[in-house]
Specification:
Blueprint: E1 3-7, H1 12-24, E2 29-32, H2 37-46, E3 54-57, E4 62-65, H3 67-77, H4 88-116, H5 125-145, H6 160-172, H7 182-193, H8 195-204
Helix pairs in contact: 1-3, 1-6, 1-8, 4-5, 4-6
């Protein structure tokens, strides 16, 4: 088994996948997507939409894109039942929380950043406000989901949901603070202390702070 991951250590979805790899104990080679023409040519060959991460299993001769699918593939490669629970109901909850985070936290976060950086011209303040409001709704939904006393995002074990939550929540709360949501804060604190996420953040540290928003103070 030889795994190559085309990504950047600061990218949220790259960190999501790195967390899974560290949790599963799977060795991998990072193919750093640094924006250079030579690297981008290789990256586009494996990821036609230029989205990170892209996983290449050179032993199996297989390329997998989309971070959630990459993690499902990795979990199966490692024997299964770790990040995607064997129990169907628990697996469904893990996938649900992953989708909420990817769509309503990551999606809104990325649109806010896109607007703030002016990549579509003059920032659209109406769009920014709508995205921020939807992110608030995501925080409320997650806070309510945690009301059953679960330790991690989908239950008592660390799953796909937590791989997704750690980087996305860390970055998104700098744009839309958690506010008065104690369960969300406590979950995030546990994620920040998780060794796999600590290691992913250490991987990103040499690249500085690339997020166009100050660190969260709430």
């Amino acid at each position: 088994m030889a795994l190559q991951v085309w990504s950047h250590p600061y990218a949220a979805y790259g960190q999501k996948t790195a967390i899974a790899l560290y949790e599963l104990g799977l060795p991998f080679e990072l193919k750093l997507v640094d924006g250079s023409p030579e690297v981008m040519a290789g990256f586009m060959a494996v990821s036609p939409f230029a989205k990170m991460p892209a996983l290449v299993d050179t032993t199996a001769g297989r390329t997998v894109i989309e971070s959630s699918i990459v993690i499902e593939y990795l979990d199966r490669l490692a024997g299964g039942g770790t990040l995607i629970p064997d129990d169907p109901e628990a697996a469904l909850e893990a996938r649900f929380i992953d989708r909420v985070l990817d769509t309503y936290v990551g999606g809104n976060m990325n649109r806010i950043i896109f607007n703030r950086l002016g990549r579509a011209g003059t920032p659209n303040e109406t769009a920014l406000a709508l995205d921020a409001k939807e992110l608030e709704t995501a925080w409320d939904m997650l806070e309510a989901r945690l009301a059953d006393g679960r330790t991690w995002g989908a239950g008592e074990t660390f799953t796909l949901a937590d791989c997704t939550a750690a980087p996305l929540m860390t970055y998104a709360r700098r744009l839309v603070p958690f506010g008065d949501r104690p369960r969300l804060r406590a979950w995030h604190a546990r994620l920040m202390a998780r060794p796999s996420f600590v290691r992913a953040l250490e991987d990103a540290a040499p690249f500085g702070d690339l997020m166009p928003a100050p660190p969260a103070v709430d």
